[in-house]
Specification:
heterodimer; A: about 280 residues; mainly alpha; MetI-like fold; 12 helices; about 75% helix; flat; B: about 270 residues; alpha/beta; 6-stranded mixed sheet; 8 helices; about 20% strand
């Protein structure tokens, strides 16, 4: 059914003489979408151009910064040899499993912490303590506990992700307005029903955004996870390149991880915008 | 009034401890007759919202009790519908589902529910907006859905906590007329909290004025204006005289609340 929006009918016409005046630096004002996208891609282009100038121009040694073509050649080489797909598959598998385990633990615990002060009081000091421990320093311990197989990689990714994620989920749950919960009580709902039918759906958009952010963090812990005793993986390839001073291999690996991270980020952004249209105030 | 719908008996309430806490309500008693529309007005912070929350069962009073149809209230329940000042629609549900949500715990069949939901959406003037989401609605429309949601499961009492407080003056006037016409159609006992004296007189059978904190019922004004009422009534001599009297009563309390915040004055009460 067609549902007319009340706001749309009320929107006043803009006088035509003012329509074209766009202030690009007005505080918190929207700018045209095209300008916004142009700025973002323009900046990346600028970095690429600067890179091309200093490398092709011979201002900087190949050892420190190879040319863009050397990086692309390295990518093609890895792809043709099948290393790239093999590495990517191994790394994505580790990230997905590590992140899923972290998330499967963080969601229920975060939801409990956000709703029950007792659980928050019980767990938050401990989580804050672990959260500030450097994950790299935990590598020896994780090998001791989980060996040198994929389990150790999952464990590192879990430690790097879970302790941050659980606190974010707790905050997501806490942003649900208290009056929504009170409506549930006045409708005769039990605490469990309010949790299931009001608090969870109301906090879901925020939780989805937390998924987006934390999966990004999991990607950043990939190299740490593959630091020791990994036979394959994108992070592993970078560590290996270090030994031979294969700078183009290092930079290719970094950029490739960045791109995969960006893709997952956009996946969550686009699906979130699709699922949660109702959050947009117009 | 031998059979009040709602009886509030000697309610006192303080937040925090009884010595150092905030003393909000001081021995409040009142009763609402069946199908009576009663407004409670008072200066801000006088405890009128706390009183409503206590009747709703959302706050346990420190002393006293509340009876609905003769039985004491122990927590919130479906015999009392509440409309809040903030927008409390579930933003992930379209209008019809928001209203239907209130029927989840009812014993109605699917067809009965559909009919009830459609009827109440029409009653609040939102036919055609069944599938709109709250973010597509204006503030006034959202509160109309909230009213439909609070009425659809047929509670015995409707509690309204400044439901139009966040709306602009024009929308507010329209909402008052709409609520009155809904109430004429579906008679129900209403307790309406507001600080707008015009609104209180226009809607109510009785207006109760509360004192400054700690709140008690200072004075009761009976509104004998004929129903159904239209907004023109606000300029009638009876209306104006009543408004004058109520505003005077509230002013005394506002002045008092501006000087009597020290504990010493509180103890002297």
């Amino acid at each position: 059914m067609e549902t007319p929006s009340a706001r749309e009918l009320e929107r006043p016409a803009i006088p035509s003489n003012r329509r074209n005046r766009v202030k690009l630096l007005a505080l918190r004002e929207d700018i045209p979408r095209s300008v916004y996208l142009l700025a973002g891609s323009g900046f990346i282009a600028l970095v690429l151009i600067a890179w091309a100038i200093v490398t092709y121009g011979g201002f900087i040694s190949d050892l420190f910064l190879p040319t863009p073509t050397a990086i692309i050649d390295e990518g093609v080489r890895q792809y043709e040899r099948g290393i790239l797909v093999q590495d990517a598959r191994a790394s994505i598998y580790r990230i997905v499993v590590g992140w899923f385990i972290a998330t499967a633990c963080a969601v229920p615990i975060g939801v409990m912490m956000g709703n029950f002060k007792l659980i928050e009081g019980l767990l938050e000091p401990f989580i804050d303590l672990v959260r500030y421990m450097p994950v790299v320093a935990l590598v020896p311990l994780t090998i001791l506990w989980a060996g040198i197989g994929d389990q150790q990689k999952f464990l590192i990714l879990f430690i790097g992700t879970f302790f941050q994620e659980v606190l974010l989920i707790m905050d997501n749950v806490k942003t649900v307005p208290h009056d929504l919960i009170r409506v549930g009580y006045t409708l005769g709902m039990s605490r469990f029903e309010i949790l299931r039918d009001i608090i969870l759906p109301a906090s879901f958009p925020g939780v989805w955004d937390t998924f987006r952010i934390t999966l990004g963090w999991t990607w950043t812990y990939l190299v740490v996870a593959e630091l020791v005793a990994a036979r394959d993986g994108l992070g592993r390839r970078i560590m290996e390149a270090q030994r031979y001073l294969a700078t183009e291999q290092i930079i290719f690996g970094i950029i490739f991880i960045g791109i995969l991270g960006l893709v997952t980020d956009y996946f969550f952004k686009i699906t979130g915008a699709y699922f949660f249209k109702w959050t947009k105030e117009r | 009034m031998e059979h009040p719908k709602v009886a509030v008996r000697h309610i006192s309430h303080w937040f925090g401890s009884s010595q150092n806490g905030l003393f909000v309500l001081d021995d409040v008693s009142l009763s609402l007759a069946p199908n009576e529309f009663v407004s409670v007005v008072g200066t801000s912070g006088c405890g009128k919202s706390t009183l409503l929350n206590i009747i709703a069962g959302l706050i346990d009073p420190s002393e006293g009790d509340v009876l609905v149809d003769g039985s004491p209230v122990a927590g919130p329940g479906r015999d009392r519908g509440v409309v809040f000042q903030t927008y409390t629609l579930f933003p992930w549900m379209p209008v019809w589902k928001n209203v239907d949500f209130a029927l989840k715990k009812s014993g109605f069949s699917k067809e009965e529910k559909q009919a009830l939901v459609a009827h109440y959406i029409e009653t609040v003037g939102l036919k055609g907006f069944e599938n709109a989401y709250p973010n597509q609605l204006s503030g006034g429309m959202r509160q109309r859905v909230a009213i439909a949601r609070a009425l659809v499961y047929k509670p015995a009492v409707l509690l309204m906590d400044e439901p139009f407080g966040a709306l602009d003056a024009q929308t507010r006037g329209m909402m008052q007329e709409l609520l009155l016409s809904v109430w004429e159609e579906h008679r129900i006992t209403v307790m309406f909290i507001t600080h707008d004296v015009d609104e209180a007189i226009f809607m109510s059978d009785r207006v109760l004025v509360m004192t400054a904190r700690p709140g008690e019922i200072k004075q009761e004004f009976r509104v004998d204006l004929s129903r159904p009422r239209r907004y023109e009534i606000m300029t009638s001599p009876e209306f104006v005289a009543l408004k004058h009297a109520i505003v005077e009563t509230i002013r005394e309390e506002t002045l008092k609340s501006m000087v009597s915040v020290s504990p010493a004055t509180r103890a002297g009460r």
